[in-house]
Design brief:
The chain is mainly alpha-helical. It is built from eight helices and three strands. The mean pLDDT is 88.
Length: 173
């Protein structure tokens, strides 16, 4: 009887270890991708996403970009400041409404985007949407349970795969 108990305990411990290893692999994958972007292209994941959205939308307001990429306006403003310093975007007052500031990608950013890989979440989203609805629901349920178990429910997060809070990543560049 004690032998069965020991086997169950060992099996549960092995499963716990595998779950922790899987979480660690996800974190490392995100971190490696983020470092690669910075090292090879001088961009963070959020900067890449904002630039891609700007090239798609052309001339838009900061609020429109923030909404499109699911980030706060303050975060997007910081991202845009760094992109403007690198001459990857330009900001100018709207000719129709002088109160509005419009943002536009420069030709330099378009050249950079031609070389840069897609944001990490694009591949993930494509893979996830290819799954059956029940598989998607199961993954979501499991991840929400993990978030709860890690007492992370109150942490604000955007649907962007980067290591650490977006604001901190941006401030350090």
């Amino acid at each position: 009887m004690e032998n069965n108990h020991r086997k169950k305990t060992n099996t549960k411990r092995a499963i716990c270890d595998e779950v922790l290893i899987a979480i660690r692999r996800i974190i490392q994958s995100i971190d490696l991708h983020s470092r690669y972007l910075v090292r090879q292209f001088g961009l963070t994941g959020p900067q890449l996403i904002v630039l891609k959205e700007l090239s798609r939308l052309e001339e838009v307001s900061v609020g429109e970009i923030a909404k499109a990429v699911s980030l706060s306006q303050a975060t997007v403003t910081g991202i845009l400041e760094r992109l403007e310093n690198r001459r990857l975007i330009v900001r100018q007052r709207s000719k129709k409404d002088k109160r509005r500031v419009l943002v536009e990608a420069t030709s330099a950013s378009k050249q950079l985007l031609d070389k840069a890989p897609p944001p990490m979440q694009e591949h993930f989203i494509q893979q996830l949407t290819n799954l059956q609805d029940w598989e998607q629901a199961m993954i979501l349920s499991s991840l929400l349970r993990i978030v709860s178990m890690m007492d992370a429910s109150k942490i604000e997060a955007a649907p962007i795969l980067v290591a650490g809070p977006i604001d901190e990543i941006e401030e350090n560049l």
